[in-house]
Amino acid sequence: MFWLRCLFAVVCIAAPTLASAELKVVTTTTDLAAIARAVGGKLVDAESLTPGTSDPHFMEAKPSMIRRVASADVLLIIGADLEIGWLGPVLETARNRKVLPGSLGYLDLSTAVPLLDKSSGPVNRAQGDVHVLGNPHYHLNPGNGILVAKAISERFQQLDSAHADQYRRNVELFSQELSSKIVGWKKKLEPLKGRSAIAYHTSFRYLADAFGIQIVGQVEPIPGIPPSASHVEQLIGRIQTEKVGLLLMEPFYERRSAAYLAAQTGIKIVIIPQSVNAEPQIKSYFDLFDVIVERLYQAEAT
After folding, report:
1. Nearest C-alpha neighbor of 28 from the set 46, 10, 43
2. Which residues pair with 107 in a beta bridge?
3. What pairing do the DSSP bridges indicate for beta strands 44-48 and 74-77?
4. How far is it, in rounded angstroms, from Cα 247 to Cα 290?
5. In this prediction, what percent of the chain has a pLDDT beyond 70?
6. Dist. CA 30–CA 56, nearest whole Å
7. 20 to 30 Å CA-CA from 250: which of 21, 65, 161, 169?
8. Contact status, residue 252 vs residue 53, Cβ threshold 8 Å
9. Alpha-carbon Rg for the chain in angstroms
10. pTM over 0.85
């Protein structure tokens, strides 16, 4: 921990002063940053500690993270232990009381949505990367995006009451637009309703729920553990028996297993961007689902 404190001292000396926004917001993912910008508009400066191109489970505490958290007014986290491996050291070293758990500037958005896959019994490491509190990938149900936006708006109003009306108007506009888009996205993916799919990881439970897709298995035998040859062979049998047509996966996972499954069964691989900024054209929460829905639609159409 000593090296983190030394790095913190260095980055604080070099850190520029930013005073153009009412609230300086730091988030643990690009999705939360995108929603925070939609809710806050010009009243906030929001940036993510992690890039949209990486798996946020497996980040490392970095000087840049410490610098951002040290000067933040608000910290928005996904929660449900998604950031458990790296956020603790960042908070400890940044020493910013405004954004510590229990403070008004700290908001765990997992408390704003109904979480799936909560563990009902004892959990150990032999079960893999299991989240006791529930599946943390809730942002992939766009309906949860509305709940997240409302929770963020309420917290911004508490922290910046002078602009409470603006935060309320912004979240209302965001919710209305997202609700309208959800109707269109569901209509476009109506042919996929009830279809079976295999996913690489457990990330797409919320996405599947949103659009009526049935995920019947994972390429990973247990979360976070690469597939063995025997597990892949079992999946081949299941795909063929149950006529599973789609394999959903994020771009950062290894492709060899998916390619083998496709070669043996004809299953269609759908590479789904998991976050805002996962691809250059995905700059907003709306963009994320425009791309996801189009990928699924094209996979069904071909």
Report:
1. 46
2. 76
3. unpaired
4. 19
5. 89
6. 10
7. 65
8. yes
9. 20
10. yes
- Which tokens in the block code for residue 157? 């109003």
> What is the C-alpha separation between 249 and 103, in angstroms, rounded?
37
Would you give the distance in Å from CA 216 to the centre of its chain?
A: 22
What is the bridge-based pairing of β-strands 74-77 and 106-108? parallel
Q: Does domain 189-301 have CATH number 3.40.50.1980?
A: yes
Domain with CATH 3.40.50.1980 in the chain: 2-182, 189-301
Q: Using CA atoms, how far apart are residues 28 and 64, in angstroms rounded to an integer?
A: 13
Nearest partner of 249 among 218, 282, 284, 291, judged by Cα? 218
Give the Cα separation of 133 and 209 in Å (integer).
Answer: 19
Q: What is the pLDDT of residues 190-246, one digit of tens each?
A: 999 999 999 999 999 999 999 999 999 999 998 888 899 999 999 999 999 999 999
Taking all residues of the chain, what is their mean pLDDT, rounded to a whole number? 91
Report the chain's terminal Cα–Cα distance, integer Å: 53
Q: b or e along 244-279 (b: 16 or more beta carbons within 10 Å of the residue's beta carbon)?
A: bbbbbbbeebeeebbebbeeebebbbbbbbbbbbbb
The residues, ordered by sequence, that sit 6+ positions from 123 with a Cβ below 8 Å of its Cβ are 130, 132
Strand order in the sheet with 246-249: 214-218, 196-199, 246-249, 268-271
